Amino acid sequence: MRQDTLQEPTGTKVAASVPKPATAAHEPPTRQPVRQAIAQAASLAKAAEERARDRQHAKGKHTARERLDLLFDSDSFEEIGRFAGGDIAGGKAGSAVITGFGLVYGRKVAVYAQDFSVRGGTLGQAEGRKICRLMDLAMEIGVPIVALIDSGGARIQEGVAALTQYGHIFRKTCQASGFVPQISLILGPCAGGAVYCPALTDLIIMTRENSNMFVTGPDVVKAATGEVISMDELGGGQVHASTSGVAHYLGADEADAIDYARTVLAYLPANANESAPVYAYASGHAERQAAKRLATIIPENDRQPYDVLDVIRALVDYGEFVQVQELFAPSAVVGFACLEGHPVGLVANQPLVNAGSLDVDSSEKVARFVRLCDAFNLPVITLVDTPGYKPGADQEHAGIIRRGAKVIYAYANAQVPLVTVVLRKAFGGSYIVMGSKSIGADMNFAWPSSQIAVLGAQGAVNIIHRRDLQKAKESGEDVEALRAQLVADYEVTTVNANLSQEMGEIDAMIDPEQTREAVAGALRTLAFKRRQRLVDKHHGNQPL
Predict the structure, then answer these.
(1) Which has the closest alpha carbon to 453: 493, 407, 506, 496?
(2) How confident is the model at residue 301 (pLDDT cuts 50, 70, 90)?
(3) Helix, coil or strand: residue 323
(4) In terms of Cα–Cα distance, which of 246, 219, 212 is closest to 116?
(5) Which of 482 and 57 is assigned the larger pLDDT?
(6) What are phi and psi of 306, to 5 degrees?
């Protein structure tokens, strides 16, 4: 007999007893009443998004909510304070900023997105309070903060009250700095004091179109100096990505910029108290082939350039390398990669540009990136091939002493695992500052062809043997032949890495093919390295 029926004595079947609704069978079920205000709010929200689409799409821009859909995993965004700062009865849907939390590759991230379709995305008291509340929550639970910037700046109608909110945001950003990763995407205008909100964060991402940052706009510049300049020429994405170094990535469009933010977040931990995520990885034939390829990349002629990116891609998992500030100070290369599934930071000299020498811009680029890695527990792998600091009056006058010292400060204070490989040249002060053992690196390796010395052979011979060369010239001898012989002798006796190895400054001389395994082995050894407070102080006084 079926379980859902009962047998009556007469043999007829009746339905099993089930609870009956109190209402008559022909009446529809009772629904929860909908308050008039809720219906009005939903209507306002829908109309606001429609207006935003009309205004933003006409400019080739996404709406704030469309940007959130691009940033977060599907259906993971949870908004907070949707109608804060609004007036539902008065027909105002909310403020000019959206705040909330979502998932990026399954990991929680906080976001605030300025909505240019609402009062030009300007910031007033309501917007400032929403942003500060979000940042407080993000710090309490320890998750990254992403800012989507598209704003006309402080709301003039609110005067000093609006400016005060910027001060609150500045302070919150400084409090969060070094504790949770902070990323700013500039997807529209960002001018005046507002520029310092993103300037205080870890990474700034801009786009080729519609993205602008400047303290004083073109009209103010013209009035003050008479110079006529466009917004893009003054503070567009291309300018800040390649000339000023303010932007760390230049997206082809909004989708590309947001995808870069998602990618970077995949390499970083949620906060400074956690380790970076670990990804599944299995070494195979491709890695063995890449290791062999390392031996063929660097030319035998030490003056011939090569692309250090070829070395990096042959060294890291799947050849995947995410550059930071790719267009700025190209004589140095920095970025994120994985080694045996563990995220790391890579720093390298680029021999294709100025022979890989350090200048004022590349020094700041390297220092800033090492500090970022140290703040968020990413080991730093340094690949060295540099003849030294770039010479010239322009460099001295631009502050190479002060700005070059930032590299020293960054490496000397870093307490994450530091592994350095000298690929070819490491001369003078640049040998010391680029992750040498004496400045604090944990493990240092060198390739057999590497040259480590105070000065390159040519320059050293010209100084040391100046009189010998002069005498040879006066006596009619072949000066160039003598110079070549002296250079060869100097390279054999002084410039090679043997002296550094004998002093313990180099832990091992490795063949290029062994580089990946040597670095990975060093990181496995250093996996349990812990931070130590060496002296009792508030903080150091970094050269700025």
Answers:
(1) 496
(2) confident
(3) strand
(4) 212
(5) 57
(6) -155, 165
pTM of the model: 0.88
**What secondary structure letter does DSSP report for 123?**
B
Tens digit of each residue's pLDDT (9 = 90 or more) over 326-361: 999 999 999 999 999 999 999 999 999 999 999 999
Joined tokens for residue 169? 């945001």
- Contacts for 49 with CB less than 8 Å, ≥ 6 apart: 63, 65
Q: Would you state the pLDDT for residue 335?
A: 98
Please compute, for residue 483, the number of CA atoms within 13 A of its CA located in the half-sphere on the CB side: 16
Separation between Cα atoms, residue 19 and residue 306, nearest integer Å? 81
Region class of 318: left (phi > 0), else alpha (psi between -120 and 50), else beta:
left
**Residue 16's pLDDT band (cuts 50, 70, 90):** very low
Report phi then psi at 491, rounded to 5.
-65, -40
Give the integer Cα–Cα distance in Å for 419 and 517: 12
Dig out the tokens for 414 from the structure: 């870093």
CA–CA dist 139, 110 (Å, integer): 10
Residues in the chain: 544
Is the C-alpha dihedral spanning 426, 427, 428, 429 positive or negative? Answer: negative
Q: What is the pLDDT of residues 379-426, one digit of tens each?
A: 999 999 999 999 999 999 999 999 999 999 999 999 999 999 999 999
108 φ/ψ angles, rounded to the nearest 5 degrees: -70, 135
Please say whether the beta carbons of 125 and 158 come within 8 A: yes
Angle at which helices 160-176 and 125-141 cross, to 10°: 10
**Cα 72 from Cα 244, distance rounded (Å):** 30
Q: pLDDT tens for residues 74-113?
A: 999 999 998 888 776 676 777 899 999 999 999 999 999 9
Tell me if 315 sits within 8 A of 348, measured CB to CB.
no
Query: How far, in Å, CA of 136 to CA of 110, rounded?
Result: 10
Mean pLDDT over each residue of the chain, to the nearest integer = 89
Q: Which amino acid is at 438?
A: S
Residue 117 has phi, psi (to 5 degrees) of: -75, -10
- What is the C-alpha separation between 526 and 540, in angstroms, rounded? 25
Whether the CB-CB separation of 253 and 208 falls below 8 Å is answered with yes
Measure CA 156 to chain center. 33
| Integer Cα distance of 80 and 113 in angstroms | 12
Task: Report how far residue 344's alpha carbon sits from residue 417's, in angstroms, rounded to the nearest whole number.
Answer: 10
Instruction: Determine the Cα–Cα distance for residues 315 and 339; give it in Å rounded to an integer.
Output: 8
DSSP letters spanning 235-257: HBHHHIIIII---SEEESSHHHH
How far apart are the two ends of the chain, measured CA to CA in Å?
Answer: 87
Across 464-477, average pLDDT:
79
Residue tagged 């500030």 (tokens): 325
For the record, the structure tokens of 56 come out as 């933003």
Mean pLDDT of 367-378: 98
164-179 pLDDT, tens digit per residue, is: 999 999 999 999 999 9
What is the Rg, in whole angstroms, of the alpha carbon atoms belonging to the chain? 30
Give the pair of three-digit tokens for residue 8. Answer: 């009556």
Band of pLDDT at residue 37, cut at 50, 70 and 90: low
